[in-house]
Every structure is written in structure tokens, then in C-alpha cells.
Automatic annotation (TrEMBL):
Protein name: Histone deacetylase
Gene Ontology molecular function: any one: histone deacetylase activity, hydrolytic mechanism
Catalytic activity: N(6)-acetyl-L-lysyl-[histone] + H2O = L-lysyl-[histone] + acetate
Organism classification: Eukaryota, Sar, Stramenopiles, Oomycota, Peronosporomycetes
CDD domains hit by this protein: HDAC_classI (cd09991)
Domain of life: Eukaryota
Residues reported to bind a divalent metal cation: D188, H190, D276
Annotated binding of substrate, by residue: D111, G161, Y315
Pfam families: Hist_deacetyl
Origin species: Lagenidium giganteum
């Protein structure tokens, strides 16, 4: 188990049951030391900025703070292929010219460049998601936060969309050791394609993504993409247009998530909180405020389920930090003032020096008629979900355990088709109208 740096009593949180929620927060100070490149949009430094704001608002006093215990590289191959992870360990800026074929094969290039310490960075954020899921399995926390995670585009054997290792999938696999059903929710402006693809053929994981759709990366996430085989109807996609505002987004989010909870009844939730859906993001086209984005977090929290909260996209650094700090306050149930306390990056937030910023006047192209039509389609899809299994959940020990228990858990995994290592050829299933093979079934 990760060593605790700070362990304080939990605070009572508002919500349907007014129960106390124990919040664990995972952070590694090294995460901000990695650089994709001077002109690259992805800046791991944003996580350090968010953490510093969280500290100076005093929110760490209301959480248990953990530095993740780094998992072995082999743990990453519970989803990713051995040769892909081996390549990420091998490649450096100095030797990349020797591996041109592999760079193309694994989609390492402009969007996902070679930089010093690629796999070490992946190891940090993936370890936090896996370790956070293990804490939820152990019932030593009710909510776990890992703002360095949420890299939802990575595939089994290729990088994609600034993502090399898919910690969302690894965290879900950990949760599946205990929970029969896991719900993955994604409010990043980009479709959560890597997670959807990984679980496209299983009914144990439902993926739900609210995203911009059309001529926009990654180009997937049509409302007609609903899953395959046993996973049919367990992929939920709400394609949106430019200008999505708070009123429209929170309305569709609450309605769809409520219906999912009714029909799917998950035992745990993974919530990806990409902030590129905020107004003014460098790569985004939505118009959400920090409060509008956080309303989704508060709504998921109100169901009182074990919840793993992850970061994701977000490319206007000061707004990323603002949003994740405010959402940390929502998750801990602590009210914080709009006026920003002095912090190490205070000058980034000028001239307003406030947590909440006004949105733009961009037009919302999501008409009420369009949103109503999309909701109706999804509600009809969810009616097809099978009733919640009545069989007892099978508890499997968490990843972070003794060697003896690890061996037993490994044996149990081999008997579970969702948990099996996908390296074997028999795991690959080519699906109709899908670009990639399904990784789990």
C-alpha cells in the first residue's frame, strides 16, 4: 500500500444521504518535471499548478494524501502489449532515429513525441490510478482523486492523442477485481475512444462519453456506436456541437447519468474530468464554466458510490488548475472563496486572480430539439440493458498485496474473460465498422 504522507479525519459532505465521504488524493511531485516539447500543447506542469492551488486553499487538510507506490512496468501489460511497453522503456530522443519502423508502428510522432522519461511519467500517473482503485476496493476511501491521470486515448499497442498508457483502463481493471459492474464517465471534449474500445464487448463496464463530434479528434463516438456482442448497448455516446454551455450540458448530463444509474446500477465509477471542455481552452470548442464542469462532478458524487476521479485534457493551464482545484473542493465538501490565495504561480492567474472566470459569448449550436433527440435515442438504448445480475459479487484482493495473494489473484484473473491478459491471439476480436480490434470481451 502506498505510504501515507498525511492522514486526517474525513469531513461530512453534502449529498443525498449526507454520509461522510473519505477522500484520498494521489500526487507525485515529479510529474511536473516531464516535458513533451516546447511547443507541444500537453504540459504535465499543469498538475503541479493545480496541486499548489489545492495546497494553498487548505484542501489537503480534508483529504488523505498519498504519493503513489510505483507499480512494476509489467503491471502496465495487464492492458498494453509487452512489445509496446518494452519500446516505451527503450526509446529516447537520442536513439529514436534507430527505430523508425517501430515509431510508426506504435504511433509515436508529432502528437505523441519521444521525450526523456516517457514511461516513467506513464508509470507515475498509472500507478496513482491503479493504487487509487485498490484503495476503493479495500474500502479505505470513498473517493480517490488523481489529477495526473485520465489519459483516455491510448490503445493497447499504440499511443494516441498525447496519451501513451491508458490509466483509465488499468484503474477499471483493478476495480473489476471487486465490483461486478463499473461505470466510466468522460466529460473531456474529446471522445474517450481508448476506454470505449477496451471494453467494447463486455457488459461489465459501461462507458459514457459526452464529447464534440464531427471533424474533430479522434473522430469516433457516434451515437450509433453502442458496443458489440455481450457489450451491445453498454457503450453510450452523446455527440455534441460547438458552444455547449452550462445549462445544456448539466441538463443532459444529469438526465443521462440518472438513467444509466437506474438501468446499469454500477458498483463503482471512474470519472474522467478533462478540462478542455471549458470555455477558452486552447484546443476546445465548448463554453463551460468551472462551476458548470464541476456540477457534473458533484452530481456523480451524490450517488455515494466508490469513485475514482481522474484528470484528462486541458490546455489553458491556468484554467486547468482553477477547475481541478474547485472540483477538489466539491469532492471534499469544503467551500472556498473566489479570491485566489497567494501561491507559487500567482502571476499566471492575473489580472483577475480569481477562481471563477466568465465564459465567452460564443453561440451554442446544440439546439433543444437536437439534445432532446439524442437523449431519447440513448434512453431507448438503455432500456435494452439486461437486469442487474443477482449473483453475489466475487471479491478479489487488490493489486497492492502480498506475493501469495498476488499469485492467487492472478490465477483468478485467468478464469475471468474480462481480466485476462489480451496478449494472446484468441483475445483479438475484429468488430464490424470499428477501426481497432476490441481488447476485452
Amino acid at each position: 500500500m502506498a505510504a501515507s504522507l498525511l492522514s486526517l479525519s474525513s469531513t461530512a459532505l453534502p449529498g443525498a444521504s449526507a454520509t461522510k465521504r473519505r477522500v484520498a488524493y494521489f500526487y507525485d511531485s515529479d510529474v511536473g518535471n516531464y516535458h513533451y516539447g516546447q511547443y507541444h500543447n500537453m504540459k504535465p506542469h499543469r498538475v503541479r499548478m493545480a496541486h499548489n492551488l489545492i495546497v494553498n486553499y487548505g484542501l489537503t487538510k480534508h483529504m488523505q494524501i498519498f504519493r503513489p507506490r510505483l507499480v512494476e512496468f509489467e503491471e502496465l501489460t495487464r492492458f498494453h502489449s509487452d512489445d509496446y511497453i518494452h519500446f516505451l522503456r527503450l526509446i529516447t530522443p537520442d536513439n529514436q532515429h534507430e527505430y523508425l519502423n517501430q515509431l510508426q508502428r506504435f504511433n509515436i510522432g508529432e502528437d505523441c513525441p519521444v521525450f526523456d522519461g516517457i514511461l516513467e511519467l506513464c508509470q507515475i500517473y498509472a500507478s496513482a490510478s491503479i493504487g487509487g482503485a485498490a484503495k476503493l476496493n479495500e474500502e479505505s476511501a470513498d473517493i480517490v482523486i488523481n489529477w495526473s491521470g485520465g489519459l483516455h486515448h491510448a490503445k493497447r499497442s499504440e499511443a494516441s492523442g498525447f496519451c501513451y498508457v491508458n490509466d483509465c483502463v488499468l484503474g477499471i481493471l483493478e476495480l473489476l477485481k471487486k465490483d461486478q459492474r463499473v461505470l466510466y464517465i468522460d466529460i473531456d471534449i474529446h471522445h474517450g475512444d481508448g476506454v470505449e474500445e477496451a471494453f467494447y464487448t463486455t457488459n461489465r463496464v459501461m462507458t459514457c462519453s459526452f464529447h464534440k463530434y464531427g471533424d474533430f479528434f479522434p473522430g469516433t463516438g457516434d451515437i450509433k456506436d453502442i458496443g458489440y456482442g455481450e457489450g451491445k448497448n453498454y457503450a453510450v455516446n452523446f455527440p455534441c456541437h460547438d458552444g455547449m454551455d452550462d445549462e445544456s450540458f448539466t441538463a443532459i448530463f444529469r438526465d443521462v447519468i440518472s438513467k444509466i444509474m437506474e438501468h446499469f446500477a454500477p458498483g463503482a465509477v471512474v470519472l474522467q474530468c478533462g478540462t478542455d471542455s471549458l470555455s477558452g481552452d486552447r484546443l476546445g470548442f465548448f463554453n463551460l464554466s468551472v462551476k458548470g464542469h464541476a456540477d457534473c462532478v458533484a452530481f456523480v458524487k451524490s450517488f455515494n458510490l466508490p469513485t475514482l476521479v481522474l484528470g484528462g485534457g486541458g490546455y489553458t493551464l491556468r484554467n486547468v488548475a482553477r477547475c481541478w482545484c474547485y472540483e477538489t473542493s466539491v469532492l471534499t465538501g469544503v467551500d472556498i472563496p473566489d479570491a485566489m490565495p497567494y501561491n507559487d504561480y500567482f502571476e499566471y492567474y492575473g489580472p483577475e486572480y480569481r477562481l471563477h472566470m466568465p465564459v465567452s459569448n460564443m453561440e451554442n449550436l446544440n439546439s433543444p430539439a437536437y439534445l432532446s433527440e439524442m437523449k431519447h435515442t440513448l434512453f431507448e438504448q438503455l432500456k435494452q440493458i439486461e437486469p442487474v445480475p443477482s449473483v453475489p459479487f466475487h471479491h478479489v484482493p487488490s493489486t497492492l498485496q502480498t506475493e501469495e495473494k498476488e499469485a492467487a489473484a492472478h490465477d483468478a484473473d485467468e478464469d475471468d474473460p474480462v481480466m485476462m491478459d489480451v496478449a494472446g491471439d484468441k483475445q483479438a476480436l475484429f468488430m464490424e465498422k470499428r477501426q481497432h480490434v476490441a481488447e476485452y470481451y
